[in-house]
Amino acid sequence: MSIPGDQPFRPPRDAGASEAVFRILIVDDDPALRRTFPHVLAHAGRTFDETGSIAEAISQLEHQHYDLVLLDYRLPDATGLALLDWLVEHRRDEAVIIISGEDAIDAAIGALRRGADDYVRKPYHVAQLQRAVDSALHKAALEKANRAMSQRLKASERLHRYLVESSPDLIFTLDAEGRFSYINPRVKALLGYERNSLMRRPFTTLVMPEDVERICTLLAQPSALPGESFNVELRLRRNRGAAHEDDSVTVSLTGIPMQAQGADPRKAGLYGVARDISERKRAEEIISFQAYHDQLTHLPNRVLFKDRLELAIAQAQRRTGALAVMFVDIDRFKLVNDTYGHAEGDTLLRAIAARLSATLRRGDTLARLGGDEFTVLLPDINTPEDAEVIAAKILDALAAPIMLSQGEYRATVSVGISLFPRDGATAEDLTRHADIAMYQVKRSGKNAFRFFDPALNTHHRERITLENDLRDALGRAEFELHYQPQVSLAQRRIVGLEALLRWNHPVLGSLGPAGFIQVAEELGLIGEISTWVLEQACAQLAQWRHEGHDQLRMSVNLSPFDFDKRDIVSSVTECLERHDLPAGQIELEITESMMMNDSAGVAAKVRALRAAGVSVAIDDFGTGYSALAYLQKFPVSTLKIDRSFVRDLEGPMTNPIISAITGIARGFDLDIVAEGVEQAEQAEALQMLGCDIMQGYYFARPAPAAEVRSWLQQPSMVFPLH
Distance (Å, rounded) from C-alpha 471 to C-alpha 533? Predict the structure, then answer.
């Protein structure tokens, strides 16, 4: 080997070569030469190992991979050919340069045939060896990079093929004629076709007829930009032989045109991805249905009814036609829910909805607004009598009982009708006026129908104004108590006073309870009003007691709602404690109807009040369906004879009802008070029938507390007081 003194030859390296690391194994039996090679071949990124025999080299290769092996041809235990054979047998990819002193050409040919990359004959120039090593390492690096790239490509291809083949989407390619050139296996599960059966067939064979023209237009359009995609929803037909409920699948198709080679702008085909959106479309349909329909009856709801009504009004205006709107409310529906439960109430609603639907014409709309309220749109009617005929059919349809799990139930409805254009020009006006007419039916006895009358609207507006004013009446201190004396003829004195509520309305003047108590009950304000009345009556009685009138009894009227929704017992007893009043000097008046419609809770509260010492009177006794059994269940203390019996009184024996009531009072050891006494003869007859305590205009009209004080201060009572 010749080692000149000039610098070793270093071939030019491409970018990044300094970052490469090459491992070189030197196999030579000459120790001096093994030590020289690393110095001669030294280069950034190169590392060297050395062995002196074939056996040592194989042992080293079994534990380490090398980029290059510098192999001496003749070694103590074998020739270098043996190592070449071992590398081939074990499918190793190390580059090998044979360094040999053999002159025979056969040695070089044998080495190259066994896979040697180069053959350097001794003696050699250092630059020759360096070029051979650089060339072998460069080739090895290229092969290594090529192998890595090939492996990555194969891995990428396997990955993409796996993704395409196992994709939940339908992936396909079309040729320039729109025929399938590839389709993934998803087509079998999605559409029921074998993919081989679709190859070379037009894509449009899978498209439902109504979507064919649209997709053909998209496929025929030239692409303006390479890779420009389009997206469209369409339906693909399913294989009729496959077991599917639907004959089509709704998909979202994304298409990317493939460009022809060269400057030709025509398409060479299409990449397509079709995603099954059938579930999403069904979900959207369900959501849309729920947004516009009632979930219980599946009838149109308020929103959809309003849309259809507005459309019908627009059409009627163009044709100068007419239409009718009905507002239908189920009578006593709350009774079903309260008695049998909401499940039975739902069953009743569905049954009534079915019967109402059966009475209507094609083109009419029945909607459920919520609760027990329905509305009906009747377009294209000629006369009001047309709407009247359908309203009569609705009432007749509900004549037969409805079978519930608890037994038969006979439902009735109240129906209000408004007409376009007579009763309004907008959907809101027509619906509101039909509602007003329906409420008038409710107040008139239910189970009927009536048309809207403008006079009803005036009454309705007055009612709304009254409701608004009533909500603020307490805060504006507009309520006042008047008192009507209850006198004892035998004692010639006032023994009690009934507190009567008056509303000093800023516009309507003084209103009695009959003008607003029912409204207060419907608005849920009666509890606050009753609390105020009880508080004011107790405060006034406490003041009169302080002035020396300690034998007076105060009567206060209570609403049935006070017993249903309030803890009436604690409210009364706490009020008495606040004003330091004996319980026996307060008497609470309840109606006979409340006694007859008793629930266990009301009876228990009456017993609790009596146990606390509070008197309880039955007002207007005898006007309802009185039953003696209820007098045992309700431990009342007083019966009040209604003014209707007193009005017809002419002599002591001319009214058997009063005689019966006084007999009942004596039998149950109850006090008795007669109301509505307006003449001296009535007072005398009542006294002869056994009734001593009376009240009425004959003695005095209800008056404010200041006027009552003057009555109480008279040393000798003379009747009448006024």
Answer: 16
